[in-house]
Amino acid sequence: MFKIERLNIFDFLRGFAALGIVIAHSFKIYYRNHPGVSIHNILNLPAATCVWIFFIISGYLIGKGFFSGKYKTDNIKDFLNFYIQRCVRILPIYFLIVTIDLFFVNTSIYFNFDNQILKRAFTLTLRQDYLTAMIGSMWFICTLMQLYFIAPFVNKFFITPIRHHSNAKLIAGILFFILLGSELIMRIVTGPYTPWLQVIYENVRYNLDLFFCGFLFNFYTLNNEDNMLKKYMRPSIFLLFLVFFFVNSELFNNSINIGNLQIRWILIIPSIIILILLAMIYSFDIKKTNNIGLSNYSIWHPLRWFEILGGISMGMFLCHSQTICNLVKIIHFKEPSIFYFNLFNLLQKPLKITFSAHAKELYLITLLAIISAIIWGIIIHIMVEKPLNKFRYNLIDRKNK
């Protein structure tokens, strides 16, 4: 019998987010290359929401590392140890992808942008206004590394003193909602005067709540024991997460009116996804089943697919953009006799749906993009991530001896 509590919630969320980003960017890049084309589809998930999942998970797991004693901030050596581990985990893959793109794929960047992309890429300060196809996702890595730089200081000067207080959970809860509320207000206030891409994607300022609300939530999950409440929460919060995600694709660009104030949903969604995701983590991340996963279940179990994708999500995330750009350029069907088109024709009658030529192109591009991203993810995981992780664990072992 399937037990949902065995789900490795972190791998599931990573896999779900990585797949959602590939699908979302397939639609976005296709539309950019085909002006005027619009194909309504509930699978057209907003990529921003998927990226927010990565920020929340990263903040929570880094916080868990500090709370469990894996990372410490007692002295400068502890700070350096944390930074070295984070750099070994992420930067080699980052610089590999950036180097390939800048010097072998988009070689004209150096001249067309007055060296700005080159400088920002190698100083970890990339923003949305300095992007190319393959490094289109690298702003996330840059922002994440900036948040990692801040994290030990937050733990040293804020989290550690609170942990020694008799009302630690109460104080942490107050800080949690102050951070959540202040960032929500900042988005709403600055939203009408700032390009939405900057509000959603830009640097550390607009992602503090995503990362550090996850960090603070460790006050409530440290030594997290299972109970009846969490058993009942799991299926309901899991369903709420899926429903919200797909409803979000409809709400993303809409607005709500409160009196004379018009607020875009896109400015509210980060705060909502923080609460939903942390509720999921609270109900799933328990001591007895933490990180067990669904390895005993059939490979055909759909939730296990997402766990597997979670294990290769970094490679999928970092390499998908260039693949999609190339697919959009080369896939243009004109002959109705092509097998892929005939397959759609067979589906039209029983489904009572008519697929346009653009829809057929887009769905094929999306399918191939997913397959390509998975292949890239596997290659990077085996050839880069696993050796780096082994090296990182050896560093930890040496430190502990």
Overall mean pLDDT stands at 80
> Which sequence of SSEs, written as H and E, runs from N to C?
HHHHHHHHHHHEEHHHHH
Q: DSSP strand (E) fraction?
A: under 5%
Estimated structural class: mainly alpha
Q: Radius of gyration from the CA trace?
A: 22 Å
Largest sheet entry: 2 strands, antiparallel
Total separate domains: 1
Q: Strand order of the main beta sheet, please?
A: 1-2
- DSSP, total strands: 2
End-to-end distance, in Å?
Answer: 43 Å
Q: Give the CA-based shape.
A: globular
Helix content: over 70%
Weakly predicted, low-confidence segments: 335-339
Alpha plus pi helix count: 16
Describe the structure.
- The protein has 401 residues and is mainly α.
- It has one domain (4-400).
- Helix content is 71%, strand content 2%.
- It has a two-stranded antiparallel sheet.
- A hairpin with a 2-residue loop joins strand 1 and strand 2 (261-264).
- Helix 1 packs antiparallel against helix 2 (47-68), helix 1 packs antiparallel against helix 16 (357-400) and helix 3 (76-105) packs antiparallel against helix 6.
- The longest helix is centred in the C-terminal third of the chain and has 44 residues, at 357-400.
- It is globular and about 65 Å long.
- Residues 335-339 have low confidence and may be disordered.
